[in-house]
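For anyone still unconvinced, we reproduce a single protein record, the chain in one-letter code, the fold tokenised, and leave readers to judge:
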Amino acid sequence: MKIAMMSRWNATCGISAHAELVGWEWLKKHDLTVFAPTLESATDWHHNPIEKEDEDFVIRGYEQPETIGKTGWIDERLWKENYDVLVLQGLELLPIPALLELFPKIKAKKVLVWHVGKLPIYEGLYKLSFDAIVCFDFQFGNMLKDKYPADKIHIIPFPCRPVVKGDKKRARKELGIPGDKTLLFSFGKQPLFEYADYLWLVKELKDIYDLKYFVLRSYGDLPLESNCLEVRQGIPESEAIYKYLHASDVFLWPKAETDYIAVSSTICQCLGALTPIVAPDVRHVELMDKEIVKYKDRGDLKEKVIRLIEEEEFKQDVLGHAEQYVRENSAEKIAKKFIRLFEDVLRS
């Protein structure tokens, strides 16, 4: 099967993560060409610059618009090559007016992967005709029923990175982290207020445990003067993130509540490290259950982190559910579900 995909690639965002996880699986048995945004247009407001060198199958083949509804250049190979299926991800980041003009020229079956948690108001978007629309869960599907025929909407969960069990002592030694401390870990570039609960937690626990809160930040420090806190700067690859997770006792995921539907690509990518994940009870994790530990307030946070530190049975129960979730939603299995959908669409 010859697959083309329009999506961000080699970038630190959920769209890119999804594209790469399934894309690398498709490449094992199929021909894949990725049309990614030009480097000049791909550094938008919430993503880090793309620094990783592109693979041979990647074409920097379109201009990502500054706002939805703006047009832009698209490489002619998108419609001149004879692809079987065209997959589009992050539609709100694509030059929609140009696509409206070019869609009739593209002979490939067109499959949209819907990432957006709130319906964009730009009506031109909904004039694009797709053979299938893929959503991560039923919440996205329900949102789209007024815009697309129900028989075209399919649910395929967000893929997970594989289970990789680590050695805590070795990981700490390689990272230069004290081996005898209780280690709490966070990473990312979230705004400072999203760390407030965890900075409070450090103050509460520092006299109970020999504690270290290790934070890996894309940029910026955290406002806590404590020898329990260490902040490092960096944008590591997923393998490095797994090493930090393997070194840690608990992964504290910072995220504020939102008014739109969301799925946490970060959690899907971190579950496989089998380090217990603690998260606020927000919409990003609404459909997750025992595979992570959700808290409702600071008292609940403190109680559950203490349980993870002190109660091995509780910790192993959480990790058992996490491993089961990862294996059920592995990138390999999710990629196969897409291929079956492509085959159905090609037969129709």
